[in-house]
Design goal:
Blueprint: H1 17-42, H2 56-73, H3 78-95, H4 98-101, H5 113-132, H6 139-149, H7 151-154, H8 160-176, H9 180-193, H10 207-224, H11 226-256, H12 259-272, H13 280-306, H14 310-336, H15 341-361
Length: about 350
């Protein structure tokens, strides 16, 4: 046996890490949205009695604990999917009550609570985008992934495409690796995979694989319908622009009226419940101004696309949608609470279509 080597502690990104983060992200968003919708429809019921109140933050904490235990106890690959799902639901139930954590009065409806939840969601999206970026192939990380795929052999679930992929990875590791241990292990594994007695699975794909295959077919069909995607972007961005400019027009009207009338208008806003207090009027004005900027960019984007200037139109649309999702929405969630969910879904959908159009056709 040769002399000992220096341990390597550099982190290796888990295979399918982006899928696990996305699953957690979706379950997080669904958890918060469905919880608020359920409470609104049922009149905010409580579990407990005159002394006890079992808040859903407790269920969230319990699910987070279970999510951390599942991959620690079980070695099966499905444990990561289950842990990701439970962690998303758990953190959604937990952070939904953030208003109670940051106020002396335990105010569930504290206005900054919704922007805090939304900002946390955006940070998770940024994490997903970072993890989703393809990393440079290295023999060490590739061998980690091969060893993870070998669990399919133990589960009698190694299918021909997986077998072929692993063979390709091992051949590449053997060619590129400068570490003798890594080369020897890769060679031994390749010999095992090339053994004629190795039995491969011929079972139908699992649920998530079937969903992925169906999504891939839909993606291929969408790629063929360039004109339909372009029309959807023009109509969607045009609608966003018109609505935003109509709202921002209120700001221009306010700027032209006398101070006495402006004070009366602020009083009317407070009386109508549009803002909680006169101090929030400033945030409303900032929101209207930013929505006006978003509206102008959205209309410009739709105009460029309609005129055939697709690169300029997509670039302008991406700027306007990113500004809306990352900045304007924080103010809207502060003022309108969770009434902004539908708007956010619309803008995010347009952002996905715009990025897909740029990637597929430009």
């Amino acid at each position: 046996m040769s002399a000992s080597m220096v341990p390597v502690r550099a982190p290796v990104k888990r295979q399918y890490a982006e899928y696990y983060i996305l699953l957690s992200l979706i379950s997080f968003a669904a958890s918060v949205t469905l919880t608020r919708l359920f409470l609104e429809l049922t009149g905010y019921p409580q579990i407990g009695n005159s002394e006890l109140h079992i808040a859903h933050v407790l269920w969230g904490g319990l699910l987070l604990f279970v999510a951390s235990l599942v991959p620690l106890i079980f070695a099966n690959r499905w444990s990561y999917s289950l842990g990701a799902f439970l962690s998303g639901v758990g953190v959604g139930l937990f952070i939904d009550e953030v208003g109670k954590f940051i106020t002396q009065s335990n105010d569930y409806f504290y206005p900054p609570a919704a922007p805090i939840i939304y900002a946390f969601f955006l940070l998770t999206v940024l994490l997903y985008l970072r993890v989703r970026k393809p990393e440079e192939h290295a023999p060490r990380s590739d061998l980690y992934h091969v060893l993870e795929d070998l669990t399919e052999v133990l589960d009698h679930d190694l299918e021909p495409p997986e077998h072929a992929r692993m063979e390709g990875q091992l051949n590449e590791i053997i060619r590129e690796s400068e570490d003798s241990n890594t080369k020897q292990l890769a060679t031994a594994l390749l010999d095992f995979l090339n053994n004629e007695s190795l039995q491969l699975a011929d079972s139908p794909p699992e649920f998530f694989e079937r969903v992925a295959a169906r999504l891939s077919k839909w993606r291929s069909k969408l790629m063929e319908h360039r004109r339909a995607l372009k029309t959807a972007l023009i109509l969607g961005l045009g609608w966003v622009g018109v609505l935003a400019i109509i709202k921002a027009g209120t700001l221009l009207a306010i700027a032209l009226i006398p101070k006495l009338t402006l004070e009366a208008w602020v009083t009317d806003l407070v009386d109508a419940g549009t803002v909680e207090s006169a101090s929030e009027t400033l945030w409303l004005l900032v929101r209207l101004a930013l929505e006006g900027v978003v509206g102008v960019f959205a209309l410009l984007s739709a105009s460029f696309l309609a005129a055939g200037k697709e690169r300029r139109g997509i670039a302008t649309g991406l700027v306007c949608l990113l500004l809306s999702l990352t900045t304007v929405n924080l103010l809207i969630f502060y003022l309108d609470q969770f009434n902004a969910v539908a708007r956010t879904v619309l803008h995010f959908g347009l952002l996905v279509i715009a990025r897909a159009y740029r990637r597929w056709h430009l």
